[in-house]
Amino acid sequence: MLVNINTHRRPVDGHLAALAGERVLCSEHRYRRGTEIFGEDEDAEYVYQITAGAVRTHKLLADGRRQINAFHLPGDMFGFENGSSHRFTAEAIIETSVRIMRRGSIIEATESRTGGTRSLLRLVTQNLQHAEDHMLLLGRKTALERVATFLVEMDARLGQPQLMALPMSRRDIADYLGLTLETVSRALSTLRDQNLLRFEGTTQRRIELLRRKELAQL
Amino acid sequence: MLVNINTHRRPVDGHLAALAGERVLCSEHRYRRGTEIFGEDEDAEYVYQITAGAVRTHKLLADGRRQINAFHLPGDMFGFENGSSHRFTAEAIIETSVRIMRRGSIIEATESRTGGTRSLLRLVTQNLQHAEDHMLLLGRKTALERVATFLVEMDARLGQPQLMALPMSRRDIADYLGLTLETVSRALSTLRDQNLLRFEGTTQRRIELLRRKELAQL
DNA sequence: CGAACCCTTGACTTGAATCAACATAGGTGG
DNA sequence: CCACCTATGTTGATTCAAGTCAAGGGTTCG
């Protein structure tokens, strides 16, 4: 099975047709919040680059326990860190636009441009590095340390904005950090009480980091 | 700094000289149990293949908490999953022999042989896959599930021998699984009491798996 | 032979999970 | 625009899985 056309989560037919042609190497597509972009064990036919929005990738255990491997933000590419078939599920966290490319054409492109798959190798190596750091977090850090690490990571990836607008819910953060959503909420409250951060306005997803250094050295 | 000659953990001068020459592309070296092969943040000058023994790679937090990323067994290569500098420390678990190659020559070799860095890419991708599976374990599995998963993994990698001789201590297993050594010991005792495994003889590192299927479906 | 590990087991503690209640936001349709 | 509903987030009370502390036996190795 190459493509499962009768599900809403696949690129629409028009995009497939375009991608199948010779001229068009990539195509834009939009996903509503909460929709699946690809599933675990599906063929890795396409590679994705986010132009707007945010994506989470996760694995599930049989009884529903979820581990989020990574969050992807605008500019990030994802979907090829895999082998030929996806090893996890990707979902749009919020309304998200992605540029979709055929996997094969990407590999050929990077190969001819750099005289090898080196840039691809670099991307996979970056993913590996992130995974290694995350294993240390999951295996050995306390709840407060995990949440602080998460905030510092997001802050850096968003370019240290004055105000950080997190796209993901407390549950997503929890499943990324190997915690429960209550524990994440409590840790954030603790950090707020220690004046390390501030919630902006009424929605709790807008956070201002007040003392980045102290947060980082947890 | 390319090579820190005055530490015992580096290849001896003879090997360095040989590696520097044109003819010899690789060299054999032996490490006593517990000795460091390379350290975190060192230059990744060499790539290693184990011919006998076992190696662990780990990261440390400032206060000494340790997370073991992976165990390496005979036949395994390690040391280039990194970028140009090592992102963790590698140590011999037991008396270990490794084949040492210059990193550069490996990359060239794989490139010329396969018309690209594809085989290298495959190796890094395998590492990434392992890391992703391990994140699920560390983030979401119970102690018993972690130990069972560990046993099944080792069993498979050792070729499902009738009797499995683990090279690593309970502490190593604990630091790999994000547990304490006591919890690992208790989990093993529980599995023994459930007749899922058996300790062979007096040393507790020889284990016979009695019902692999039931162990695997935890 | 002694010393340093290694492993197991028991008793107790604790950090995070679970269970529960409540507040608020945001989306939908009347 | 409002009323409703669901999803989201916080906080408190309680439980529990794993950690910590402690003791004792066994093995290995210099």
Automatic annotation (TrEMBL), chains A, B:
<dbReference type="GO" id="GO:0005829">
    <property type="term" value="C:cytosol"/>
</dbReference>
<dbReference type="InterPro" id="IPR018490">
    <property type="entry name" value="cNMP-bd_dom_sf"/>
</dbReference>
<dbReference type="InterPro" id="IPR012318">
    <property type="entry name" value="HTH_CRP"/>
</dbReference>
<keyword id="KW-0805">Transcription regulation</keyword>
<dbReference type="Pfam" id="PF00027">
    <property type="entry name" value="cNMP_binding"/>
</dbReference>
<dbReference type="InterPro" id="IPR036388">
    <property type="entry name" value="WH-like_DNA-bd_sf"/>
</dbReference>
<keyword id="KW-0804">Transcription</keyword>
<dbReference type="InterPro" id="IPR014710">
    <property type="entry name" value="RmlC-like_jellyroll"/>
</dbReference>
<dbReference type="GO" id="GO:0003677">
    <property type="term" value="F:DNA binding"/>
</dbReference>
<dbReference type="Pfam" id="PF13545">
    <property type="entry name" value="HTH_Crp_2"/>
</dbReference>
<feature type="domain" description="HTH crp-type">
    <location>
        <begin position="141"/>
        <end position="213"/>
    </location>
</feature>
<dbReference type="InterPro" id="IPR050397">
    <property type="entry name" value="Env_Response_Regulators"/>
</dbReference>
<keyword id="KW-0238">DNA-binding</keyword>
<dbReference type="GO" id="GO:0003700">
    <property type="term" value="F:DNA-binding transcription factor activity"/>
</dbReference>
<dbReference type="InterPro" id="IPR036390">
    <property type="entry name" value="WH_DNA-bd_sf"/>
</dbReference>
<protein>
    <submittedName>
        <fullName>Transcriptional regulator</fullName>
    </submittedName>
</protein>
<dbReference type="InterPro" id="IPR000595">
    <property type="entry name" value="cNMP-bd_dom"/>
</dbReference>
<keyword id="KW-0535">Nitrogen fixation</keyword>
<dbReference type="InterPro" id="IPR018335">
    <property type="entry name" value="Tscrpt_reg_HTH_Crp-type_CS"/>
</dbReference>
